[in-house]
Amino acid sequence: MAHEETVYDALDLAHGGEGQWAFGTGFDDPLAGVDTTVPDGVDPADLGAYCLMLGDDALVLAQRLTEWITAAPELEEEVALANIALDLLGQARLLLARAGAAGVLGRSRELAGPTIPDEDALACFRDPDEFRCTALVAAPNGDFGRTMVRLLVATTLRLAVLTRLRASRDPVLAALAAKGAHELTYHRDYAARWVLRLGDGTAESSRRAQAGVDDVWPLLADVFSPTDVERRLAAAGVAVDPSGTRAEVTDVLTTVLRRATLRVPPWPADEAPAGRHGRHGPELVDLLSRLQGLARQHPAATW
Amino acid sequence: MVSRVARAIRRGRAEPPTRTVDPRAVAGAVVDPELPMLTLADLGVLRDVRTGAGGTVVVEITPTYTGCPALGVMRADLLHALHSAGFPDVEVRTVLAPPWSTDWITEAGRRALAAAGIAPPGPAPVRPDGPVPLDLGPTRRTAACPLCGSAETEQTSEFGATACTALRRCRACREPFEHLKEL
């Protein structure tokens, strides 16, 4: 081996030793060695569909956050947003791999070809109407103020779900939730501090933060509405019914906004789930075209 | 020294001991790719090393952060180190529960971090079973400067170059340093 000694040598060797290994290719199964047996009495299709909901929320929000890389107001914030995105991407990998292990792959498996891992096939070879994320995470970032408001709302919701999911009868979901809740605690506090700083900052920062709140609030219309899959799995002790998180979420958001001297808009009336059933606006199509473009044009590319 | 030998073996520049070698010692001496002053055993991510049926060495590791890309490198490094040490059949399994916390870092690991200029973590936060309370104040975490020892330090960013570190600055000696933040 002529190349320099780096921490990636063993990884490179494991992938042929040609120096072609790069992040994005040749990942190992993130659930290697984990027992992915579906609990008794649970429909694997339901479990897989639920993993896609939680996994797609994380994947799409991670993609939105990475759009700030090279564009954030300060280097530290860029690093912070990249870190949060990385945590969410890690959660997405496990959840999509869990969906794949439960047999929920759909056409993505044929389109991706046999060598692409399940989670990559699901991330890069599903069409927008096969994604199960909410409009809350798919919406464009807007300015930094709106980005922080959306991050606060999305992480508050996700933390409320994950703390409850720690008691899931599915040991994989329970373990992932226990770990993810620790990470989300950092994410939510980070976003909350920024909303405080912007809302209670200059006239301009406060105006932008309030505009962000007013833009994001309507996206809360369907986040507390359970799908039939969530209802069934919640009854079986596997999933969390999001309607049960409403009191905690509204309390946290109200607390932060009041402290930030921002006006709390009226809570939108509940609507039936849309994104959870694959009904999305053009912003998700746009996001996915960038997320999936390389993988679709050059499946299994190495460089 | 142990980790240096393991690294040399890993790079194929030292002869692996072929007899009476303990796979636990080999696996435990593999270092973290991003914090190479720490062995995987010191970092607390090595959960178990055992020899199973037919001589297969089964290694269990747990991720620090869910998305930490170092896990794939650790897996490859473990396989390579154990293969080089004369164990042809190795299986590296991921364990997700209980989740890793910085409390799993050993005393030796904490000393190694400090010696390398990285402030070791304090005790991990106590976590309620119910809703997680908001923390809106400036972070209460403290860390003594690993260079001059002063307690007068401030956080410059909660997120650093790796998933597990925050950035701090010492008010006494003015040096910036990394802090392995409590998780």
From TrEMBL, chain A:
Pfam families: PaaA_PaaC. Transmembrane segments: none annotated. GO terms for cellular component: cytosol. GO terms for biological process: phenylacetate catabolic process. InterPro entries: Aromatic_CoA_ox/epox (IPR052703), Ferritin-like (IPR012347), Ferritin-like_SF (IPR009078), PaaA_PaaC (IPR007814), PaaC (IPR011882). SUPFAM superfamilies: Ferritin-like. This is Ring-1,2-phenylacetyl-CoA epoxidase subunit PaaC. The lineage of its organism: Bacteria, Bacillati, Actinomycetota, Actinomycetes, Geodermatophilales.
TrEMBL record, chain B:
InterPro entries: Fe-S_Maturation_MIP18, FSCA_dom_sf, MIP18-like, PaaD-like, Zn_ribbon_PaaD. Residues 29-85 form the MIP18 family-like domain. This is Ring-1,2-phenylacetyl-CoA epoxidase subunit PaaD. Residues 1-20 are annotated as: Disordered. Residues 136-181 form the PaaD zinc beta ribbon domain. It comes from the Bacteria. Pfam families: FeS_assembly_P (PF01883), Zn_ribbon_PaaD (PF23451).
